Amino acid sequence: MPTVLSYFLGFTAIYILMCWAIYLPYRVGQLYFTTVACMAIVAYFSGFAAREWGWPFIFVLLVGIAIGAIIAYILSHAIGKAPCFTVVIVGLAFIFIVKTVIENWELLGGTVGFFGIPPVNNLLLIAYILLGIVGFVIYQIDHSRLGRAASVVFVDRDAAASLGVNIKSLGMFYQTIAGAIGGMAGVLYTFLLGSLSPEFFAFAMVGSLVCMLFVGGYTTMWGVIVSAPILGGIPILLPVTISSWRQVIYGILLVLIILVRPEGLITKRMLWNLKGKNRYKTASNLVNTRREKVG
Amino acid sequence: MKKKNNILKIENLSVTYGPIKALRKANLEVNEGEVVALIGANGAGKTSLLKAILNIEKPNGKILFLGKDIISKSTDNIVASGICLIPEGHVIFSSMTVFENLQLGAYHNSYDFDKNLEKVFAYFPILQERSSQIAGTLSGGEQQMLSIGRGLMSNPKLIMIDEPSLGLAPKIVADIFEILSELNEEGYTILLAEQNAKKALECAHRGYVLETGRFILQGTSRELMNNQKARRVYLGGSV
Amino acid sequence: MEVFLAQLINGLALGSIYVLLVTGFNLMILVARIIQFAYPQFVVLSMYACWEVLRLTNNVFLAVFACISTSIVLNILSEPIFRRITNMKGIDINASFVASLGIAIVITDIMSHSLNYGFPIAFPTSWVEGSLARFGLIMISKGQLYALAGSIIAVLLFFYLLYRTKQGRLFRAIAENRFAARLIGIPIVKTSIFSYFIAGLLGGFIAILLSLLLGSASPWLGEFVALKILAVSIVAGLGNLRGGLVCGLCLGVTEAMAMGYLSGSWSNVVSFVIMLIIILIKPQGLFGTSIS
Lengths: 295, 239, 292
Ligand SMILES: Nc1ncnc2c1ncn2[C@@H]1O[C@H](COP(=O)(O)OP(=O)(O)OP(=O)(O)O)[C@@H](O)[C@H]1O
Ligand SMILES: [Mg+2]
What we know:
The complex is a heterotrimer of chains A (295), B (239) and C (292).
Chain A: H1 3-26, H2 34-53, H3 57-79, H4 84-103, H5 123-142, H6 145-155, H7 157-162, H8 167-193, H9 203-216, H10 223-237, H11 240-243, H12 246-260, H13 268-274, H14 283-294
Helix pairs in contact in A: 1-5, 1-8, 1-9, 1-10, 2-3, 2-4, 2-8, 3-8, 5-8, 6-14, 9-10, 9-12
Chain B: E1 6-17, E2 20-31, E3 35-40, H1 46-53, E4 59-65, E5 68-69, H2 75-80, E6 83-86, H3 98-105, H4 113-123, H5 125-129, H6 140-152, E7 158-162, H7 170-186, E8 189-194, H8 197-203, E9 206-211, E10 214-220, H9 221-226, H10 228-234
Parallel strand pairs in B: 3-8, 3-9, 6-7, 7-8
Antiparallel strand pairs in B: 1-2, 1-4, 4-5, 9-10
Helix pairs in contact in B: 3-6
Chain C: H1 2-32, H2 39-57, H3 60-87, H4 93-113, E1 121-122, H5 125-128, E2 131-135, E3 138-141, H6 142-164, H7 166-176, H8 178-183, H9 188-214, E4 216-217, H10 221-236, H11 241-261, H12 264-281
Antiparallel strand pairs in C: 1-4, 2-3
The structure holds adenosine-5'-triphosphate and magnesium ion.
Adenosine-5'-triphosphate is lined by residues 17, 20, 22, 40, 42-48, 88, 195 of chain B.
């Protein structure tokens, strides 16, 4: 398989995973970028473990997911029910700190990067199997009691609290899962590229992910499946002269989508209509119906 | 009886919130110098009607104020043309001083600020006493007075007041209705929305009874007080 | 001791600029109800405008004019976008953050591609250099003095506007209770546009002070400052003007101290670690927030 195509497929899987990792906590109204920091930490960890300690891939993968989840879980004690922008800044600050630590740590290659990570057979296959598993889990969460509780929290925190939804543990749950997915993406990224550079885990990455999530649509998990290959994958196939402008395109698209179609291309309403259920629930009567169900 | 000037005339006014029809094709008239009571239970649509007049909720229909259609005007234009709404539940700027609240009320009428201020202080001496106090620390009754005072600062041609009795002790409620009557004698025209029908009708010349978004009865205060249906439903039959 | 004093002066100068930035940012939160993440980017772009005009004409007045008008124009141009977003039903303040993130990304990328071929800009030495006073090893530069004095004047003027003028009263009224403000007939849109104007004016002024203090700017400066400003305003409490004053100054001093005693790349981390810890302990901010 030509490498460009395998990069395209691999990055698409990683972008979808990362977008889901941001999608999940946004179900309760939190823009959770800490997952990018988890991804960076786990990426370097797995690179180091594979090269220096010779750990097998599957072992690295499991430990990597665990590390991501543990970091997110610990932080979630403080920001489980924090307001959106507190969560935003915790994520951004954490990314910045992790990036600076990596850049200044000679053991990890500093600004030059970390090279020589042993390749893994059938990585793409493994990536897409993992993607399927994660997608299945998210689908189950979305269609469970937790998912419905999250919808209420998104629309109205006070109403949710008064209905007895435990906002903090709900937020902790979503953040921990997001951390685990970030860890998984970190491992896949490391073995896909075979080398690491701190540049990748920067602010631009956050911008790209936010763009994919909001353009694709944040109300359902399916939106990013459409947007990630187009926005994240295709620039890999294009010549550098064009793809170096991708950030400008991301930014413009982001502003346009918020102005024209604030819920993104693929919305819950659209999926309901596709399924032929025309009783789409608007935000306000969602709360009312939940009130009957939860209360 | 001499035909009085129409200040406010509402025709076929509807207000909807998504699927909820809060007001359906309402017709109402307020003449100069009158106190008109708007009576209805919780959720009848009184507040919706008053907000629609100020275009805070987007209405459908026709609203004539001093003969001009104001339905598509913006809220600040409508207020500038001389309507003020004193909202339900003490809506004041609680981190500002009493005086600043009054200054804000005079936004559209700053040229005779001193005259209006004097008038407000004459009605509510307590506000003068407390003029440098932070408004949020006033008692509930004082906040309601401040809310009315702030409305008066714009020297309105029509005062709309929404449930002035909400959450206040009977003594204060009586005071406030007293002041409303005084204001009316001064020449102010008042549209008064109230659940407390007895109090409202005692103060008003005419009244409208609203039920789930429709006017079901209208007439002079005396007619309404004597109306069997109105008495049964809204006055507890005890009048 | 001398390092300490020198860094203290430096920190106060830097901190006073952060104070101005946080103040403009908070004004947008309070009156326009948006999180304007791109506000520092507008400031940096104005610095570029200042630099360009200075380079072409070598005229200080023209450069200052270009700087301030760029900032005002950028802020006013963004107003219709944000108004449309805040008027949408069922869309909250997060959407304004996401849109401003988009704007910030575009500005950063354009600066790093096209302006000065993506290289950092350096202001001519006549603009920045010169020390005013010297005590032993401690030197107060022209830039530091301008930054400090300029910021103090700007903050005083801003608070005068806010607490002593009719326009400021309208700002506070809208910030405190939008519904009541609308009810008593304050023209919300007009007042809000005026707040963009004030933020723009302030931003242009910040751009001048910042270019005097730093003497240079890079395409990534805006992003970096935006991060700090968002962090400071959250540490202080979103929309809390007085908290912003205190925390902005503290950030400047902390950074300068770290710069004085630690190696370059670590010095920035210190302030972020401190802010992160404070935020984790007090997610609502130190001084409380007016935004729910
Ligand atoms: N913003 C809104 N969104 C949806 N429905 C609303 C809204 N405001 C009012 N309603 C509904 O419109 C109807 C009329 O409400 P309104 O506030 O006008 O009643 P009211 O007569 O003032 O009642 P009260 O005496 O309790 O103040 C109610 O059923 C209410 O639930
Ligand atoms: Mg009401």
